[in-house]
Design brief:
single chain, 470 residues, alpha+beta, Rossmann fold, Immunoglobulin-like, 2 domains, seven-stranded mixed β-sheet, five-stranded parallel β-sheet, 10 helices
């Protein structure tokens, strides 16, 4: 039987042909993205899941694609990770208080929840298809990195360690990373999305960065196969360009992100869809009081999305000579230069790339910086290993002045204290791990970050990238 489909987007630097259907993994790839000059298509039987870190991100990023899908009877659900209840300026402005209390932050969470309900209703989304998880605004990254286990709950700006909101998907949901993945798994298993739209790994906001990590982690743990589209909301003062209301302009990828492995494409919006997006954005009054030009800047002739192709890594025939040549063997992740959060020591903390290689005996995890290594910078390696028996192992290593330590942030952290080796040359640092840690793995996720020794201030961090291990 021939399936009806409709044109969703045109060509930018590459186009994506989105076909219906989802399944558990049957091959090495988690996404079958392929270039097709005809544009992007959705079938009527598709199911689109949009995941937003805060109330308003669902409209800023995806109001257009939501309208297009709903207009063609494609099922859409929207998940909002936090209630946006940790923004002090918004709380001060909304309630005219200089020093907000926990109760004030919870009032803000309830207010922003209602703003999302209004915004999505203006796009035609049914209320039952809007899901709020109620996790702590400003704390999503902590849930992913260190507050993972149920015996180590995060304290939110709202004064709670469990979601206090009656509208939350899970009543009294504990603030820990393991519960976030449990909730996302439940939603994905029930809805069975064929397309998931979520923040990109290069977004500089901590909650956006962590939402990307949680989605990637959950999909990998589930071995779930669907089309993954990422969007960008926060990328410094030059994004979007121009950073004000310009409805006749188009969103284009930031120059820094045109060579990091992403395939960018655009979803054109009609006048009606652009007006619909403007109406949705107008619903977030608590945010428009603070940054009206910024929010309005996302109302354009198009919406912008990216696809990051899967990275397949096979066994190395031996030590991959990580110190030879200008590009390390096994490079799997590129990070833009001059994109640091802090100016001090920025060259020594500016990450340019991450490499990964392995054989039966060893794993080589390499980071490259712009200006080499400094004793004033802490260099951190992060690895999540997805084993074939569906367990997940974890490695977090910190390097300071040539010494490696292994903080134990979760119960599944591997004990590698006496089985590793550190090598350094010029702008490269190689952490050599025992090969047995990936012997039973079919996937891995990795990232790296740097921060100052004195103040523990972030200098740079990469997004998380998923590897297919052969």
């Amino acid at each position: 039987m021939k399936r009806n489909s409709f044109l969703l987007a045109g060509l930018l630097s590459a186009s994506l042909f989105i076909v219906s259907g989802c399944s558990l993994l049957r091959s090495s790839s988690l996404s079958d993205a392929q270039a097709l000059r005809g544009g992007i298509k959705l079938a009527r039987s598709d199911r689109v899941l949009v995941i937003a870190p805060h109330p308003d991100d669902e409209s800023l990023s995806s109001a257009g694609i939501i309208q297009i899908a709903l207009a063609h009877s494609v099922s859409v659900k929207v998940v909002v990770m936090t209630s946006g209840d940790g923004y002090k300026r918004a709380c001060q402005t909304a309630f005219n208080v200089a020093d907000p209390s926990y109760a004030d932050y919870r009032r803000l969470g309830n207010l922003r929840h209602l703003e999302s309900v209004t915004g999505m209703s203006r796009l035609g989304l049914n209320r039952k298809d809007l899901i709020f998880l109620g996790y702590p605004d400003g704390g999503t990254d902590a849930l992913f990195t260190k507050d993972w286990d149920y015996n180590h709950l995060h304290l939110g700006a709202n004064g709670a360690r469990r979601s206090p909101y009656l509208f939350a998907f899970e009543r009294n949901a504990p603030y820990c990373g393991a519960n976030v993945t449990k909730n996302l798994t439940s939603i994905i298993e029930e809805f069975r999305p064929t397309v998931i739209v979520y923040p990109g790994a290069e977004d500089v906001n901590h909650d956006h960065w962590a939402t990307n990590a949680f989605v990637e982690y959950t999909l990998t743990e589930m071995r779930y196969r669907c089309r993954n589209l990422t969007y960008l909301v926060h990328r410094g003062r030059a994004w979007p360009s121009p950073t004000h209301y310009a409805p006749s302009d188009r969103l284009m990828p930031p120059r820094q992100l045109t060579d990091v492995g992403a395939h960018w494409f655009t979803v054109p919006l009609s006048d009606r869809q652009e007006h619909g997006k403007m109406a949705a954005v107008a619903s977030y009054k608590s945010q428009l009081r603070l940054t009206p030009a910024y929010l309005d800047a996302f109302v354009r002739r198009n919406e912008l999305f990216a696809v990051y192709p899967d990275i397949t890594v096979g066994p190395s025939p031996g030590d991959p000579a990580l110190f030879n040549g200008t590009v390390t063997a096994g490079r799997v992740l590129l990070d833009p230069s001059n994109d640091t959060f802090a100016n001090d020591l920025s060259g020594y903390g500016d990450l340019l790339g991450v490499s990964f290689a392995y054989d039966n005996d060893k794993v080589w995890f390499t980071i490259n910086t712009a200006d080499g290594m400094s004793p004033g910078v802490i260099y951190a390696y992060h690895l999540r290993i997805f084993n074939r028996d569906k367990t997940v192992s974890r490695v977090d290593a910190q390097v300071l002045d040539g010494k490696v330590t292994y903080p134990r942030f979760a119960a599944n952290t591997l004990n590698l204290k006496y089985t590793t080796r550190l090598r350094q040359k010029s702008t490269r640092m190689v952490l050599e791990l025992p090969g047995k840690i990936v012997n039973d793995a079919d996937y891995a996720m990795l990232s790296a970050d740097t921060y100052t020794k004195m103040e523990s201030k972030w200098i740079d961090r990469t997004g998380w990238r998923r590897l297919v291990l052969h």
